[in-house]
Design a protein that fits this description.
It contains 7 helices and 6 strands, in the order ββαβαβααβαβαα. The protein is α/β, with parallel strands linked by helices and 160 residues long.
Length: 160
């Protein structure tokens, strides 16, 4: 059985921490994982799980792991939206079916139309938008994570 890897704030043990799953196009992992987890750890003491790019996972293994997650974080790139990937074929459909919240994080400009084709009316956060009159990305991310990352018992009740 292939196990997920994880990252936590300060490399602490993940036991008892709220669980986030990071899913992306394989080519995007090195580019976005560190930055996105750093943003998350600024406001949350949680564990971010991800699949090892060198491991093969069965669909059953993946959905078993995903069933334990409180949130699916997905960096949105042109590659993710235009190429066939496990994320778009397995992980996102499973999360939608099981009502696991998905947080799309827009990483590239000019993808709105492609995003709507794949994700419908799901809202995303875009760190690259510079609007001094609006709430900052960091504040939006914090509010979203505070609302979604509840205790495991509460999450189970919500899903039920």
């Amino acid at each position: 059985m292939a196990y997920l890897k994880y990252k936590t704030r300060g490399d602490s043990h993940p036991m008892g921490k709220r669980k986030i799953y990071f899913a992306c196009h394989p080519d995007d992992f090195c580019r976005y994982f560190g930055e996105i987890t750093d943003d998350i750890f600024e406001t949350q003491n949680c564990a971010v799980y991800y699949s090892d790019l060198e491991q093969e996972y069965t669909v059953e293994e993946l959905v078993s792991y995903l069933s334990e997650m409180q949130l699916l974080v997905v960096p949105i790139t042109k590659k993710l939206l235009t190429e066939e990937t496990r994320v778009m074929d397995v992980e996102i459909p499973y999360a939608l079916k099981r009502h696991i919240p998905i947080l799309p994080l827009m990483q590239e400009a000019m993808l709105d139309e492609l995003f709507r084709e794949k994700f419908g009316d799901l809202q995303y956060l875009d760190k690259n938008i510079q609007d001094n009159t609006s709430i900052s990305f960091t504040e939006k991310l914090k509010k979203y994570l505070d609302a979604i990352l509840v205790s495991d018992d509460t999450a189970k009740k919500v899903r039920a």
